[in-house]
Amino acid sequence: MMEPGVPDRHPDRPRTFWTMRRRQLLWVWGFLAVPVLFYGVIRFYPTGQAFWLSLTDWDLMSDPSFIGVENYTRLFADPQFGRVFRNTFAYLIMGTPISLILSFIIAYALDRVRFGHTFLRALYFLPFITTAAAMAWVWRWFYQPAPIGVINDFLSGFGIPQMAFLNSTTWALPSIMVTAIWAGLGFQIIIFMAGLRAIPNTYYEAARIDGLGDWAILRRITLPLLKPTTVFLVVFSSIGFLRIFDQVYNMTTNDPGGPLGSTKPLVLMIYQTAFSSYQMGYAAAQTVVLFTILLVVSLLQLWVLRERT
Amino acid sequence: MHKGILFAGLMAGISPFTVTAAQAVEIEYWQYVFETRVNAMDQLIAAFEAANPDITVKQVTFPYADYQTRVVAANMARQGPDVLQLFYGWADQFIGGKVIQPLSPDAFPHAEIEADFFPIVSAMKRGDDYYGLPTAVRSLALFYNKNLMTAAGLDPNTPPTTLEELVTQAKAMTEVDGAGNMATAGMTLDMAGQDHQWWREVLVRQFGGAPYSEDGATVTYNDAAGAAALKFYTDLQLVEKIGQRGFMDEGQAAFRAGKAGFTIDGTFRLGSFRTIEDFEWGVTELPANAEGVRSNYASYFANAIGAGAQGEELEAAQKFLAYISSEEAMQIWLDVVGELPARRSAALTEANLANPVYAPFLKGLEYAHTTLFVDEAAQRQTTIDMANRILIEGQPVEDSVAAAAEAEQAILDRAKK
């Protein structure tokens, strides 16, 4: 139907049910139905199912029976959960700022380099397109004690005592985080560089004419105008660190998340509970907690960073 | 329940197997992918089909990591196999989930099973019923590097027979570089490998204890014997300094690379160690304690009949299971896969007992124990953590044993619910 007040552009054409607008809507919804259905069946239905399963004691073999919030009370009383929770936030709280600051510095510098620019950029991007598992195994080998570990061989060549790296409850988590940061760096650099390029040159020219120094330009122009890029990367990288799994699992396959659970993130605990112990209900309760954390952290970040945009 | 079936369908993928029942009966056999095992089963199926022209057997395999999930998912979708292979430690879950059915005593008389098979077959018995029979069994032994022994001035033909000799000989082979780092380990220390089995079923018993109660429901290693056994193990690194956890990443890797004198491993490692070309190695029984007490840990994959098999399929499945647990099948399995026969008569032949590689494992079977795991990965983890608390954090041995016992008891209790 035509909206009132809009003149009918084809007064001589008979009015049918299938107006242009309706036909367009049909097409739009026809195309949208595919992803909507896909997400409904593959994403939202299992998500809803997970909430229900978290209230049962399903072991994959017998029928799930309703046990109320028992999984949740067990989870919050589980000493392993406390450790895993701390580990997960350690990855987030250290990983996100370090990777963002590093990638910004590199992107900022790369943006000014003309000589070998493409080559350098490709070099930084290379880790991002490499399989996480392969990368994790190479780093795992770097971190080994002498006589096979590259780093420790190097250290002992100078008579410096070995670092325990993955064999230490203190250093294992930072060691794994380094590889995770390195793996994601290329992507963040590219996004930052795109953001930098998107700032119109006229602002810089105006600032120079006004006599602003490099530092003032960075603080007053570059950083504020990069805010949308930064918000995107903060949220993106936070979610990445909260969901860290590949690096940890591949670097500690003998003692997953070890030693003594010092590197185990929430996702690995969920994986073990579900597919090694077959406690699907308990694992579902853990995913609900992870979902809540991801939601809260993402919303919080969007809210905090929105204000000053 | 239909939600469960939908979920199972999603996980199992679309099942391409629709049984076309003409005159011939077709049954499905499931196992996980491992090249030699699949080849051996192909041979067995060919021989079985030649003898039973009215039965065809279809072998279906999945990667090990997916195997359990596939079986469970297919069972929920009523698409389960007729005969399947399972680790003995999964028996409780598979019985509870009605994945497998008890073996009929008419087709498989209990007296015969108990007389012919090694005693560890009892791990497949629940109540009055047997739920599966093994083709092959695995046990542990001590592998030694003859070249390293010779280099250390030891006689490569007299490997250690007692724990004390194990320590002295390993010490002779240990080498430390100028910076104080271990260059060659006398012995591998790898709880995540087979050492947790060695500690649980062998060392604890040799120090006078028992790891679990008779029914496997209670942890009983939290005593002086358990602590002494653990102290012996952790002292290998802390006091004797003949090995180091994490050395060369994995114990078997260190031994393969010729950087470790001794390692404890199972029959399943033979295939990998047979490709070693840089040095000569040998195998011997696990060392006895000072009083001559020996023990071993044996395990196996059993074959069982799926809960869905009925009528003529059940009959065919019984025939097939009887064949793949026959002496003839066990010999083929030994030749192709290298795993030891589960029947005494097939295992303890003169040829096998004279074989320098098989003999130590076979002797071990006579006095082996089988842990009734309810969640192998989780129980192994408690043992790994128990050693790490001492080796990394310096926790007193008694405290660490107590904490491990408490954690493992909780796992056992949860499984019983």
TrEMBL record, chain B:
Segment forming the signal sequence: 1-21
Keywords assigned: Signal, Transport
InterPro entries: SBP
Keyword Signal among UniProt keywords: yes
UniProt superkingdom: Bacteria
GO cellular component, one term: ATP-binding cassette (ABC) transporter complex, substrate-binding subunit-containing
Keyword Plastid: no
Pfam families: SBP_bac_8 (PF13416)
GO molecular function: maltose binding
Protein name: Extracellular solute-binding protein
